[in-house]
TrEMBL record:
Pfam hit, one: VirB3
Keyword Nuclease: no
Top-level taxon of the source organism: Bacteria
InterPro entries: T4SS_VirB3/TrbD/AvhB (IPR007792)
Keywords: Membrane, Plasmid, Transmembrane, Transmembrane helix
GO cellular component: membrane
Entry's transmembrane regions: 22-42, 48-66
Name the record gives this protein: Type IV secretion protein
Organism (species): Rhizobium rhizogenes (strain K84 / ATCC BAA-868) (Agrobacterium radiobacter)
Subcellular location: Membrane
Lineage, broadest ranks: Bacteria, Pseudomonadati, Pseudomonadota, Alphaproteobacteria, Hyphomicrobiales
Amino acid sequence: MSEAQAKAEVAPLVLGLTRPRMFWGVPIGLFVGELMIVVMTFLNTKNLAMFLLFLPLHAAAYVITVRDPHLPNVVRVRIAKCPWTKNRHFWGGNSYEP
């Protein structure tokens, strides 16, 4: 593989055109999810220290999405479209009929 081909595969323009909308380094949908978890925890405990929970949650989300910003959407679609069946352990995967 030549050096020109290697550079063509890592084109920053393509990544910039396909990257989801980001807020503080994570996709907006994931950021809203983090915020909802923190606010709901605060409302249930009535403890202001629960807002500090945002820092490790956001750090984990940032680490997850550094390499692939589409990973949260891929996982969400996988869970929504491919639910687990009761016999998945028996067959080694989702099987609706034997």
